[in-house]
Amino acid sequence: MSDDEKKRRRPRKMGRPTTEDALRLTSHILKSARELFFEHGFDGASADMIAEQARISKRTLYARFGSKARVFEAVILDEIDTQLRALEPSGSDEPDIGSRLGVIADRLLEWLLTPRIASMERVVIAQAVRFPALAANIHDFGYQRAVQWVASILAHADAKGELSLADPVFAAEQFVTLVVVAPMRRAALGLSPPAYDEAARDRISRGIDLFLDGCRPRQEDGCSA
Hints:
Structural class: mainly alpha
């Protein structure tokens, strides 16, 4: 065999993975781990199971995330960030404040009132004391983003005189807790079905009306929220 033929047959050295390859692998691992965590819980989904599901070695899993707890945190925060970026409102042409709040409630609850998110919520509740930093990150990463969306709508309505609010951010926290968090928590606890059906929509509509009744302008004073 000539030297030229040997050079042609010599295997090429593999280069370092590109940034795109690394991101694709991370996304694949998170998707695999998400299915296991939501089905089996944190304790029931082992690092070996995650590696097998993702078809990678456990060494690769730990090299990328450091621990199973880090994988769990990344799964939850990635789920929240991906969905909220897709749902982020770009404004609404609805004529009244009730309709504008209804639009954002629909966006959030069509995502949150599903069996998938009910499973996620159960896992997160079970691990909140064990991983307090994760609970804090979820609060800042998810809840506070939704609050800011609603606060922007409420502040605009206050400026137009539709509502009378001393603190739109505080009012938005009450709205999100009443209209969004409460039904999500009921679904996670099995007290209502994890579905945004007609009954759920009617309940949410009544919740929005109740919230607005306390925040509309009055002659004597404004809403204390």
